[in-house]
Amino acid sequence: FFQECPSGVVNEETFKEIYSQFFPQGDSTTYAHFLFNAFDTDHNGSVSFEDFVMGLSILLRGTVQEKLNWAFNLYDINKDGYITKEEMLDIMKAIYDMMGKCTYPVLKEDAPRQHVETFFQKMDKNKDGVVTIDEFIESCQK
């Protein structure tokens, strides 16, 4: 972190450049955008070293509840408290783009949408078209 960002703060473009080094076979730009927003907890357009370490701490050493809250926040792109099919599809497409076209077996074009449909069948308990934090946590814990 400090090697790339000696000031201890990284903006989104630099974050994307750093992240792309981990996924050279694909386009990680969109997923890095979503990830950046999850780490940028105060939504000021930058991720401090403290923000980054706190996020990593949750992901590596947090309770199951803390990890699931963090993951929900990542998927809830507009931060309205719900995950919609559109948000989940955006995330899935970003993941498939990041993994690149060289995945094995070769993925069908509609694979992200199928993934989202499966996700919603399992998680949208009341079938209202959105997944709440409670639905998300309950489903993940099962």
Automatic annotation (TrEMBL):
<dbReference type="InterPro" id="IPR028846">
    <property type="entry name" value="Recoverin"/>
</dbReference>
<dbReference type="GO" id="GO:0005777">
    <property type="term" value="C:peroxisome"/>
</dbReference>
<feature type="domain" description="EF-hand">
    <location>
        <begin position="111"/>
        <end position="142"/>
    </location>
</feature>
<dbReference type="GO" id="GO:0005267">
    <property type="term" value="F:potassium channel activity"/>
</dbReference>
<keyword id="KW-0630">Potassium</keyword>
<dbReference type="InterPro" id="IPR011992">
    <property type="entry name" value="EF-hand-dom_pair"/>
</dbReference>
<keyword id="KW-0813">Transport</keyword>
<keyword id="KW-0106">Calcium</keyword>
<dbReference type="Pfam" id="PF13833">
    <property type="entry name" value="EF-hand_8"/>
</dbReference>
<keyword id="KW-0407">Ion channel</keyword>
<protein>
    <recommendedName>
        <fullName>Kv channel-interacting protein 4</fullName>
    </recommendedName>
</protein>
<dbReference type="GO" id="GO:1901379">
    <property type="term" value="P:regulation of potassium ion transmembrane transport"/>
</dbReference>
<keyword id="KW-0597">Phosphoprotein</keyword>
<keyword id="KW-0677">Repeat</keyword>
<keyword id="KW-0479">Metal-binding</keyword>
<keyword id="KW-0449">Lipoprotein</keyword>
<dbReference type="Pfam" id="PF13499">
    <property type="entry name" value="EF-hand_7"/>
</dbReference>
<dbReference type="InterPro" id="IPR002048">
    <property type="entry name" value="EF_hand_dom"/>
</dbReference>
<comment type="similarity">
    <text>Belongs to the recoverin family.</text>
</comment>
<feature type="domain" description="EF-hand">
    <location>
        <begin position="63"/>
        <end position="98"/>
    </location>
</feature>
<keyword id="KW-0576">Peroxisome</keyword>
<keyword id="KW-0963">Cytoplasm</keyword>
<keyword id="KW-0472">Membrane</keyword>
<keyword id="KW-0406">Ion transport</keyword>
<keyword id="KW-0519">Myristate</keyword>
<keyword id="KW-1003">Cell membrane</keyword>
<feature type="domain" description="EF-hand">
    <location>
        <begin position="27"/>
        <end position="62"/>
    </location>
</feature>
<dbReference type="GO" id="GO:0005509">
    <property type="term" value="F:calcium ion binding"/>
</dbReference>
<dbReference type="InterPro" id="IPR018247">
    <property type="entry name" value="EF_Hand_1_Ca_BS"/>
</dbReference>
<keyword id="KW-0851">Voltage-gated channel</keyword>
<dbReference type="GO" id="GO:0015459">
    <property type="term" value="F:potassium channel regulator activity"/>
</dbReference>
<dbReference type="GO" id="GO:0008076">
    <property type="term" value="C:voltage-gated potassium channel complex"/>
</dbReference>
<keyword id="KW-0633">Potassium transport</keyword>
<keyword id="KW-0631">Potassium channel</keyword>
